[in-house]
Amino acid sequence: MKILSKNNDTIELLASPDEELLERGDYLVIEDNGRKLLVQVIDIEYADLPGILEDTLRELSSEDVKKISMIDPYSVGSLLAKLREARLIIAKFRGVLINGELRNDVLWLPSRLNSRIYKASPSLIVELSKSCGRRVILMGEFMGDWFTINAESLDGRLTIITGKKEMGKSHLAKLLVTSLVEYGARVVVFDINGEYKGLSLKIDGSESELSERLMVLVPGENFKVSIEEASLKTLLDILRYVYDTPSSSLREFSRIWYLVERTYKKVTLKGLIEAVSKTQMNESIREALLSRLLSLESLEFFDDGEPVSLEELFRDLEYGGALIIDLSRSLPHGRRVVVEYVLSRLSSMLKNSLPVFLLAEEAHLYLRDTYWDDLVTRMRHIGIFPIFVTNQPDMIPDSVYRQADNIFLFNFTNDSDLDYLAKASRVDAETVKRIVKALPQRKCLVIGRVVNDLPIVVKVRELMLKTMGETKLFFTSIREQ
Ligand SMILES: Nc1ncnc2c1ncn2[C@@H]1O[C@H](COP(=O)(O)OP(=O)(O)O)[C@@H](O)[C@H]1O
Ligand SMILES: [Mg+2]
Questions:
Q1: Which of 164, 190, 187 minimizes the C-alpha distance to 444?
Q2: Domain boundary, last residue among 77, 97, 128
Q3: In total, how many domains does the chain have?
Q4: Per-chain residues with Cβ under 5 A from ion ligand 2
């Protein structure tokens, strides 16, 4: 390989076709006089040499007369053929290696003629991409070697996992959740497809070591909460954001709440409904409140008889564990009610307790607009560290991407998705576009603090647990029956 050109941070290398096979995301070292430059391969193309078109055309027109032997006394044919077959490797500058440290503030270029170019050893890249910490998570393979990240680099951070459907996002999310739990962290999962409960089983169906630390909560079944614990503020939020209640009705609702509190000493949903129906008020407001409270009642999520306390559940997970909130059976507004409740409880509980990780799949389906910014600012400060998983990247606001510390990018082919991601991520647009477009299933581009800002393409490892991500298929189902 030889250096052809450098344009800003793009470096083009010429290579012959029989050189070692490269993959997008591989690292190369360009060494000259003891100094080393580190570049990352993002694509490969045919070299566009001057006169190639004319040459190829000539070749094409002479194909018919090939049978007649050509006279080539100096045997330049093979050399020309080789030139025409030259490949152009497009790579990105990642830094200059000085005393084992990667620096991108140093101005130095290797010689075009004399430098030696070779594949970087995986251990060098692993070393350079290491973030601080000692809680190792084995993530998968990179350049033929194992690749690990540290649990600490997710701690206190905002992480996004995105990519097309079926590419392995939830699989990676499960890997992160189980590793965090193993290290004693507490995780709350908003499980929109009901697939995380499988983590308590091994592939052969027996119980996994984690089964005792995973708690699956199904709203309306084993997850019912009391109105009182929910508090007036949460209820007002639910009425305002989920049920679009006008502010005049909200004011009336607060009045009723205090009234019930004074009269019965305990606020219950039944008490509220009764009070709304009996107290004197504007008829249209009564109707508005009553229909909404009855709708809340029909969710069967609020139960003032035998409520579950989120605080107690958390106490049980003191040494690490995951609360998996199965939203797969809830209706859209039911999901939003549950999420409003959980987030508001978490915010007040965490003021004097250890932080939690919040894994939210397809959060745009149940997270109200004002929560996005709240999650990345206020809630992060009180100790809720979100991991968002989505196949619709444009549903996550720009501002959230800009704040993201870690991004795991799986394949996207749609150009508008790629444009959106390229604009917002922590790495140059070309790297995102060229690498991500060509990623096969189960491979992802890791960007951000987890990899010390050195983009790495990782093939995510398997999990020995039931991941339940499979799409239920018609034809295989009838075969099983
Ligand atoms: N690294 C992996 N190793 C083994 N199986 C995987 C891996 N990644 C994904 N899968 C499997 O591929 C399927 C789709 O993955 P999933 O994570 O559910 O995709 P997504 O959430 O991106 O739609 C699932 O059956 C999952 O178990
Ligand atoms: Mg998924």
A1: 164
A2: 128
A3: 3
A4: 170
